[in-house]
Fold each of these.
Amino acid sequence: MEKKPNFSGPRKPAPAAPRPKPAPQQQQRPRRGNERSSKDPYVTNEHIRAKEVRLVGDNVEQGIYPIEKARRLAEQMELDLIEISPNAEPPVCRILDYQKFLYQQKKRQKEQKQKAAKVVVKEIRFGPQTDDHDYNFKLKHAQGFLKEGSKVKAYVFFRGRSILFKEQGEVLLLRFANDLEDLGKVEMMPVLEGKRMTIMLTPLKTQSQKKAEAAKAADNNREASKADSAKNQPKNAPAAED
C-alpha cells in the first residue's frame, strides 16, 4: 500500500474574517446659515450678534425677542432668521427662507431697474412768439409722446433780446400743459434757466395700464399664498383612502 507523501512546506495563511460593517449613522439635516459668505448681503442665524431682536412679518407674533428665542422659532419653522435692519435698535429681523428671500429681493431690484430704464424724455422747443400752426403741430407730437409713455420736456428758447418776452413764454408753456391735462400732469412748473424756460410733463396712467398692474399684483399675491400653503402642509401627511 503506497503512502501519501507528507508536505512540510509553509502553509497558506487563512483568510481574515470580514470586519463587521458599522451601523449606518442617521444623517442630520444641516443647520442653515452655519457658513456665511463674505458676499452675503444679510446676516443670518448664528451670525447675528445682537442680544435681542425685533421680529416682524406675518408668520410670527411681532415684538422684541431674546436672540436665543428668535433662533429657536426659526429652527422650529425650518426657516432662517434674517437681519434686515441691522442699524435699528434693536435690529429688525424676519423669519423666512433665506434663498427665497434673496430671490425676491433680486427680482424687485431688477423690476425697479427696468422701470427706471424705460423712462424716456422727449423734448419740444418753442419760440416766445410761436404761431398757432406751429403750436398745434408740436402739441400733436406731445400727445403721441405721452400716449406711448414718454415724458415731455417743453421749453421756450429766448434768443437775444427776446428774453424781454419771458412772460409770453410762461403763458405759452402753461397753455401747453393745460391742453395736455388729459394725457399728462405737470411734474415741474415753468422755470427759467439761462435762455430757456422749461416745463416737464409726465404721462398719466391709462385705465388699461392700471388694470394690468392690478392683475399682476393679484397674480403675485396668489402665487405667494400657494407657496405659503404648500410650505405649511405636513410633510408626512397620510394618503387619502379610496
Amino acid sequence: MKKIFLGCALLIVQKNFAQTLEKMTWFNEPEKWEIKNNALSMLVTPQSDYWRISHYGFTVDDAPFLYTTYGGEFEAKVKISGNYKARFDQMGLMLRIDKENYIKAGIEFVDGKYNLSTVVTHKTSDWSVITLEKTPSEVWIKAVRRLDAVEIFYSFDDKNYVMMRNAYLQDNSPVMVGLMAACPDGNGFSATFENFKVKHLADERRLKWLENHK
C-alpha cells in the first residue's frame, strides 16, 4: 500500500501484484535454486522423477516441483531451457491433484535427442513423445484446463502454438500447477524457467447457466 499526500488530503493507493515465484511452494525442494527477474533456476536433484507403476514396475514421487494452487479453469504457460545431459533429463509444467493424478509436460532428453514429452498419470502412468530433429534453445509450454480435460501445447516463439496432447484430469478439484524438473538417470542438470504465468478462465458451465437465466 502506498500513501500519497495531495494538499490536505491523503490518498491511499492499493497496488495489486500478480502471483510471483517467491510466493509459491516447494514440493521436494532442490539443494540449489535461485529466483531472479521472474525466472527460476535450479540444479535438478539427481536420481529423481515422477512415475507410477506401469511398464517399469516402480513408483517415484521425489523430483523438484514449485507450485501454486488453482481451482476451476485456467491457462498456465512457461518458457523453459535446460542443459540436458543424461537420459530422461526433463523439465516443464506439472498439474497435480495428488500422488495418483497428475500431468507433466515439457522437454525430455532421450537417446541424444530432444523430445516433447507428456506423462499422464491416473493411478498408473503413460508416456507420449514427439521427437524433435532440431535442438531448440528454448521452448514454451502451455496447459489449458477446461472442465475435465487439459490441452497441452508447445511453441518455439510464444506466438504459434501446436497441440501435443489432450488428456483427462478430474474437474471440480483444486490443482497444484507449476514448474517441474527431474533427473532419473543422471547427476543433475541446470534448468531455467522464465515468465511463468497462470491466467484464470471463467467456468463455461457457469457462463452458460447465467446466459440461460438472464
